[in-house]
Task: inverse folding
């Protein structure tokens, strides 16, 4: 466990379980991971390397030509510096698979994924998420790449508030599944809906073996501190007062280890053309999530007493807040036997330890 806390990745036991479940599927298989140096993309890349896959990573070019999370693994994969909005660059990357001896797995994790920023950079979000996905899908078709699976990464933000048809549990709490109506409340959410439908369009038109995987909120080591869990940890580490936006919304959080297991399972065994959702299956208010982080970090000695405040200037604009997101994961459970295995408390302890170590080294 200590090694996992320091590196921010899987424990030895978690890697052993991945090998037991997936090594036969991914060993020597050609795999392309877009957005590979991001939070979930880097964890997926490392899992695939441990499984013995022939991993190609697509990363948007940077001036310093360095990787954030995968530099220590650089000799073990094929690196493609590529902006998905540049069709010529996408073609160059995709051509690497024209002579692949086995069908290719594609995990499309690349996205501009910060909801708040999408209001300030709407054009950039749509270009990266929608045009980038369209370029990739079209290039795969044009170059006649045989695919094992194209995993299109979706999000719970696609559901929004879904005021139309919906179902609830016995407590009256809204629960979303694959059949729930889509009602995105942000530029980001709308761009992800477009990604999902583009992938399914290419399945219908060209037979691409697409699965759409709508993930509910993730957390874990390596996630940007600009997302809610990291923001709470960062403020708690630095300040006595933690100032957030609206504390009422409820979210369904999943630790990254369970998320990677879901994607590996669905790419291997999901049904082409289908949509799957996954999450922990329970929700928590932002107030209670923040308080849980404060309490766990305090118990571990990372900080002392902290005060939690709400600032209306940090609210989402207008009426665009998504009030409650919780998943019914019955479909993925029935399809591939997936269940969450890491509790919020266990996952947060690992996340806090990694994030505070990162803050200490700055």
Result:
């Amino acid at each position: 466990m200590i090694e996992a806390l320091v590196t921010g990745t899987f424990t030895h036991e978690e890697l052993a379980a991945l090998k037991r479940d997936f090594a036969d599927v991914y060993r020597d298989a050609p795999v392309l991971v877009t957005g590979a140096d991001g939070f979930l993309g880097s964890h997926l890349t490392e899992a695939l390397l441990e499984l013995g896959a022939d991993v190609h990573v697509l990363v948007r070019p940077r001036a310093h030509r360095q990787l954030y999370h995968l530099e220590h693994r650089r000799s073990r994969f094929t690196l493609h510096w590529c902006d998905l909005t540049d069709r010529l660059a996408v073609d160059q990357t995709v051509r690497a698979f024209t002579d692949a001896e086995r069908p290719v797995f594609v995990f499309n994790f690349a996205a501009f994924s910060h909801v708040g920023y999408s209001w300030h950079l709407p054009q950039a979000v749509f270009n990266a998420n929608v045009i980038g996905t369209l370029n990739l899908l079209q290039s795969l078709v044009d170059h006649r790449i045989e695919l094992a699976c194209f995993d299109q990464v979706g999000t719970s933000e696609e559901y929004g508030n879904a005021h139309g048809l919906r179902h609830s549990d016995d407590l009256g709490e809204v629960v979303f599944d694959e059949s729930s109506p889509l009602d995105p409340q942000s530029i980001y959410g709308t761009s992800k809906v477009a990604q999902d439908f583009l992938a399914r369009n290419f399945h219908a038109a060209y037979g691409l073996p697409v699965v759409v995987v709508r993930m509910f909120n993730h957390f874990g080591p390596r996630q940007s501190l600009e997302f809610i869990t990291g923001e709470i940890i960062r403020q708690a580490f630095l300040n006595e007062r933690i100032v957030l936006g609206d504390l009422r919304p409820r979210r369904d959080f999943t630790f990254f280890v369970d998320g990677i297991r879901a994607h590996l399972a669905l790419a291997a065994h999901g049904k082409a053309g289908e949509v799957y959702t996954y999450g922990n299956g329970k929700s928590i208010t932002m107030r209670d999530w923040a308080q849980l982080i404060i309490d766990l970090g305090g118990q571990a000695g990372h900080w002392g007493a902290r005060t939690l405040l709400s600032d209306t200037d940090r609210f989402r604009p207008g009426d665009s807040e998504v009030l409650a997101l919780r998943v019914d994961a019955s479909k993925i459970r029935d399809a591939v036997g997936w269940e969450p295995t890491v509790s919020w408390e266990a996952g947060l302890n690992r996340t806090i330890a990694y994030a505070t170590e990162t803050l200490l080294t700055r």
The two ends are 23 Å apart (CA to CA). The CA atoms of residues 116 and 316 lie 7 Å apart.
